[in-house]
Specification:
The protein has 524 residues and is of the alpha/beta class. Helices cover 63% and strands 10% of the residues. The strands form 3 sheets. A 5-stranded mixed beta sheet has the order 5-6-7-8-9. It has a two-stranded antiparallel sheet with strand order 1-4. The chain has a two-stranded antiparallel sheet with strand order 2-3.
Length: 524
Amino acid sequence: MKKYFTNLGSDIPSSIVVFLIAIPLCLGIAVASGVSEFSGIIAGMVGGIVIGILSGSHLSVSGPAAGLTAIVAAAVLKLPAVEAFFLAVVVAGAIQLIMGVFKLGVIGDYVPNAVIKGMLAAIGIILILKQLPFLVGYEKNNEGDESFQGSGENTFVAVLNALKDPTWLAVIIGVLGILILIVYETKWVKSKKIFQLISGPLVVVIVGTLINQVLSAGTGGLDGSHLVNIPVANSPKEFFSFFKFPDWSYITNPDVWVIGFTLALVASLETLLGIEAVDKLDPYKRVTPSNRELMAQGTGNVISGMLGGLPLTSVIVRSSANLNAGAKTKLSAIFHGTLILICVAFVPGVLNLIPKAALAAILIFTGYKLAKISIFKDYYSKGWNQFMPFVVTVLAIVFTDLLKGVLIGLAVAIFFIIRSNFRTAIFVSKQNGKTLIRMRKDISFFSKPILKAQLESVEENSTVIIDMTRAEFIDKDVLDTIDEFTQHADLKNIKVELQNSTYNDSGRIKNRTANLAGVKDQAN
């Protein structure tokens, strides 16, 4: 426990930044999901405190996720009461606990790095696009929506409309915030201890709020939709009235169970991908135990549903902001949840003074760090097998949503993995009138077109050496292709040498030149 408190100087400022970012996201996601704003606040508190304590991740921050918005909105409309939906959230959490017990967290390990990096870059692009309207004071956007479509207009239309009708004070606050963050990235600032105590994002919030308050003393300040807006309770009784509870009489409703399973599967996939992505960004390269994370998320969803909150996942936006603000341990996530609870209960009016343009500046800069041009160049230099899954994942997420985009990217990645395996299964070398065709590892039916094309390209009056000594398995269709080529090779005056592996009496492999019948006998 001592190691956590030694990093309080980094974790406390980071928790404040994440807390300030989480508030409008929680509210926006709740509105987009068709439930009360306070359901989003509850989820933010539980995600920070409960999951923060139970999780094995040092930097991941959990809360209500935009990726579940469409599922939640449809579920709220389908179920007979919102209390039935909260029961479905409890069911989802219980299923996640079972998944963790049976060690199903390994699912996330099967997602290629190109897809995970593509997911991060896509979220960075979406952050920039979605926050640009707030940066210029455009009022019609929805801060909780990370999908391409939202608020009656798609992302690009919202950006274009925002640029046509800016609110100049919001622009000044936002641009100044980005400049502050850029300065904080310079070597000179990073070398000064005083700037390590006060993080850049926190300075952005303070400066933006002070500018607006000074101007509000006259007639030029921002107000209304340009500021953070959270529910204000005038008494403890009113505060506790914001909490809703599941209705257990709906436990026999099959829709509750179907929605519970759907939420559990989608939330688990987003969480596993989220922690995998955050672990890759962690400068200390710490690894999050995936099964423990599923159980932590399951516990959090059970408690969130019991209190009337939205379903939870590990959220990359908040996690990335947490990391970029300088967090070192999980205390940052726990403190951010505690701050949500304290401020919403006791001082909600103070939070409602913060301009959204200041928060937009922080998120846009976070998006830039996730989607740098250098990342695209790096994957392009790795070849098409890496670049295509990466860029397809980026485009698919930007134009659909997180889950669909990842699935599309995963399908493309699998295609290129299979394609690469087929291409490397057969090695061809041509020199001095001789062609060497060497088969490596397993040669399946799908390698037949490649082999056939290579055999057909052999020139007349040459020699072909077909080396099968390294192949552990050769499909019979492939052997038939070699057989057909061998039978007609003399028509082009092509000499064919077949080399295969066989076992001697001591069990060791030895190489020999063989006829095709011997090769076929071995395959059989």
